[in-house]
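Appendix C: a fully annotated inverse folding record. The material below is reproduced so that readers can follow the format used throughout the book. The structure is listed first as tokens, followed by the designed sequence.
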């Protein structure tokens, strides 16, 4: 009986390689796949599934299909690659460094000047010392506090 190549093993290994190598140069460019790499995880899961099917075929019918040794090596390398990818992208990349100099909650903010939506400079001290006149003509103190909102991300 002639033995044939186990195409499931090769297809799975190629899908895992595609999932591992396509995130940084391609999928990280788009916000929908950069924030959560769902396309890469789908490629990796499909590749591991195909590798599993190929290993079952290789060990179930060794007289028909090749790949018991080489398939096992590809599956182990793929599993390690997927684990490192998940650790790096889903855990390590989301770890923020400690910032000892950052203001804490309730701490007085240092004075600063930024531009508003019209491009005019606005200082924190001006906001805290200003007062406004409402529609009823009554003057209300506006300078009791200031709410600072920080946005992180890509613009």
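Designed amino acids, in order:
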């Amino acid at each position: 009986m002639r033995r044939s190549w186990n195409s499931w093993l090769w297809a799975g290994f190629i899908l895992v390689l595609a999932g591992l190598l396509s995130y940084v140069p391609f999928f990280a460019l788009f916000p929908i796949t950069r924030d959560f790499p769902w396309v890469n995880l789908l490629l990796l899961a499909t590749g591991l599934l195909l590798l599993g099917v190929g290993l079952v075929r290789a060990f179930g019918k060794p007289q028909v299909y090749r790949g018991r040794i080489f398939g096992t090596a590809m599956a182990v390398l793929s599993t390690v690659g997927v684990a490192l990818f998940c650790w790096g992208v889903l855990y390590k990349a989301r770890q923020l460094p400690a910032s000892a100099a950052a203001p804490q909650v309730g701490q007085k903010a240092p004075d600063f000047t930024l531009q508003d939506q019209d491009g005019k400079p606005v200082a924190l001290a001006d906001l805290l010392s200003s007062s406004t006149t409402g529609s009823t003509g009554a003057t209300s103190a506006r300078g009791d506090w200031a709410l600072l909102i920080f946005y992180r991300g890509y613009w």
